[in-house]
Amino acid sequence: MEKDRLIWIFLKAPDFMKFSLSEGSLLMAAENALGIKVTQRTEFLRGLLLHGEAIESHALHLGCLVLPDLLGYDGPLAMAKDFPGQVSIAPNLKKLENQVQDLIGGRAIHPINAVVGGFGRIPKRKN
Prior knowledge:
The chain is mostly helical.
């Protein structure tokens, strides 16, 4: 087995967090340790994964926790009776982020496609 693959397995074993909190840092640490320089495309795609998670997290936090509380509702379901369009924004953003994760990360939850040096597969332009 290749040296970088062994290091990746070792670093990945305790990982149970989202990409932005753990996997991205682990990849960068392994790449720095091995002297691997990633392409601009890899940096861009990893950035999409990071920003997608931030948008998803903030949308769910605001839509499901903050707004219902500020407006005096017990939760998003109670708020949906009066504001159905606004309440649907958070789950729609989550769905969009899941599509980004699936396309770039290889699956919608806990992406697996990012590897030391780049990605296991690069999305096709048509996707």
